[in-house]
Specification:
10 strands, five-stranded antiparallel beta sheet, 139 residues, alpha+beta, elongated
């Protein structure tokens, strides 16, 4: 009986340690995971609110082409870029992306600081045609 009780205690202690390790590791691995969104004709600069550490950073993005007046999704595609920037000289970009697709771009290790998200559309469209989308900044 004592032997069985001892095994249950060991198993219980091991289970608690394992759960703490698993959940602790998952929260450490993604310490920052914040969204951004946009609805633009040509470009937008967001507010400086993304506080990033000196870590590897991934920018996810997806967008669609819409009629600004109705929100109707259109089949035409447009090129755009998502950039995170800190000051004038520090920025990290996804490169050119296309509406209608989803992307996940690791921009490498970023310098510690507060960043803003900038989205720039690179293709011409008639008045009233926007791109609407968003994504996440992950570390």
């Amino acid at each position: 009986m004592k032997r069985l009780l001892k095994r249950k205690k060991i198993f219980g202690a091991f289970s608690v340690v394992a759960l703490v390790f698993i959940f602790g590791f998952s929260t450490v691995s993604l310490a920052y995971n914040e969204p951004y969104s946009f609805n633009i004709r040509s470009a937008v600069t967001g507010e400086a609110k993304h506080k990033l550490s000196n870590k590897s950073t991934t920018i996810t993005a997806s967008a669609r082409t819409i009629k600004a007046e109705t929100g109707e999704t259109l089949s035409q595609t447009h090129k755009y870029t998502v950039t995170i920037s800190k000051g004038v000289f520090t920025s990290y970009s996804t490169g050119r992306l296309t509406t209608g697709k989803s992307y996940s771009k690791n921009v490498g290790k970023v310098a510690k600081g507060t960043y803003r998200v900038n989205v720039t559309k690179h293709t011409y469209s008639d008045y009233g045609i926007n791109i609407k989308g968003g994504g996440r900044i992950k570390q």
